[in-house]
Specification:
Blueprint: H1 2-8, H2 30-43, H3 48-65, H4 73-92, H5 99-112, H6 123-126, H7 130-141, H8 148-205, H9 221-224, H10 228-231, H11 242-254
Helix pairs in contact: 2-3, 3-4
Length: about 260
Amino acid sequence: MASSSLRSDPQNWLIGKPISLLSTARLPRMLDVLQLLQFHHLTEGRTLPESYKMTCDAAICIWMRARIPTQRVDSCVRKLSKLHQNYLALKVHRTRKRESDRMKEDMFKGDLQELFDIATKDVMTEIQNEEDREFLRMQREDTFSCSMTGVDVKTASKESRKRQREEKERKVKMRYEERMTKGFNETEGELSSLTSNSESEEDEEYQPTQTQPCTPTTSTSTDSTPGASSSKKKVKNIFQSPEVVGALDRSTTCNPSPSQ
């Protein structure tokens, strides 16, 4: 009678009572995901595929909160399905009295305390924060060795300061761009005003050249040449020369006029 009761009641064998939510204080163990799976499948009456999917979604959500890269959902579902099938296989033979069955049960119970590890293959190189890497190492050794609460508080503080710094930088950048835009518009307006004033002044100063009628000139070629008057050579008066005057006097003396 007792064996029949244990066989029909999945809540009382190895994994305990189902749970409706995973703890957010640490990463989920294998025991935690099995208990949540039992809740979706047996308590809520969902199908196994649907229960696998909902359980994996909840587990991945906890890992994402810890900022640890995880495998895809389908990989997580395969891992959970294998764990569940092992549990069902042990459950079928739970009434056996063989020592080998008891050893398998003890080993499985020990495994249930291990981390339900769904991290990516290169997770340690993908994690940027050293504190997150250390947190994962400790969780893999012992899920109760540390809590996500302290990590979340530190990280939340860092992220808050980062957001404040980014917001401050964004506002400074906006003010700078506004000043640059305003200065450019003012400079452009001043240049436009100066250009307009300059064009107006040029329009006022401009006077059209009046065309003079062409009239023929009677001046000689020497007069038409610039500086011709200054370049003319003065005609030399030869009668002012003493030699010429003397020669004329002698000529007059030697040749008296006919009247004499």
